[in-house]
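Subject: mismatched residue count in predicted assembly?

I count 412 residues in my input, but I want to confirm that the predicted structure covers every chain. Input:
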Amino acid sequence: MSARALAIYLFAPCLFVGCRDQEVEWNYSLAPTLADSASGILAHVREGSCTGERLSTYRFKRGEPTVMPTPIEPGTWGFEVEAYDSTCRRVGVGCVEAVLPPSESGVEAIDVAVDALDIVDPSQCADICDEGICIRADAGA
Amino acid sequence: MRTACSGPKIGLGAVLFLLVPVLAAHASTARAQDPLAAARAELEAARFSEAVRLYDTAYGAPSGLDRASLLRLLRERALARSALRDTDGARRDLVALFSLDQGAQFGSEAAPSFMRLIDEARASVREPLSLAVEALRIDGGYRIVVRAAGDRSGLARSVRVSVLTENGVETFAGPVAEILRDGDLRYVVEAIGPGGAVVASLGSIDAPQEARAGDLPGVLDGTGGGDDPAPWIAIGIGAGVVLLAVGVALAVFFSVTSDLTRPIGPMEINP
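Triage response: the counts match. Full output below for your records.
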């Protein structure tokens, strides 16, 4: 049986009953200096690399449940995590690239190390900052 | 009609040169009136790619065609595609044509290679596109279930059930229509195809299908079941099939993974 025939044989049922998406853990760790200051988290999936266009963004308060990210197509993706302090100043960032799906790349988990920024700029949040989460939709955090 | 397989010839070129202004004027007039006329003009001017493009536009439109014009479109697009050496495309059009009209004829001017394609396509269509309808009693009305047969080309894109009432016609979309109504039912079933053309029908406004309440079997509500065990056997078999299908679906779902990846997180691992 050819590889194409095998693929059709295996995946044709997915057209009718759906198939289980593959899963991969997406973790982040904060630099020790951020442990006390980080309050809000902004996580992005970027196309192609850590400098690619943002595919999706998830914002949540540290320690609170996150929204389940949507499934991602095969390819290389940048997984970025930004940390904001309680006044919505961006205090840390980290990013790692990963090739999906895990069944082909062998990636076991996406571990992002969030490093503290040397220079912390003033908050860009012009509206309400709720424990590191800027309420304004387009404020970044 | 020029045959699709005619190659460029000097004589033809001279004729076309003389006819260009006439054809262009004809084409622009026709284009304003009827997309098929414009396509036909392009076909006759041997601009086959443009002809196919116009036929495709009409074919993909939600309305604008009736059955006769759809037949004409399929016939002429097959010719144009054949001229472009798109044999597969021409064959698809011919199969669709013969599933609508098994007696469709082409003139003797068609090239021998095209005639062979016609014969092959005609022979491959064993049954014409047709509709079968089942009317069932449900609580408070009727369920009309419509199935298409012989639709090798996927021509029946949607189904319309029109119910004739005292106040006019009430229309339902989809292959299953549930119609709440007392008394007998008079209805027309139509399959709608490319360009909005009716590609198959059962009944007409003048001679509709009829369902009489007293003559029909019921569906799951027991109105038509009586003491006959056959419906319950059928229901039991149906339930078994459904359970088996659910089991297979679950097995597939859990055993086969897609190529999509769902990240779990982001989760902080050193809080």
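DSSP finds two helices and eight strands in chain A. Marking this ticket as 'not a bug'.
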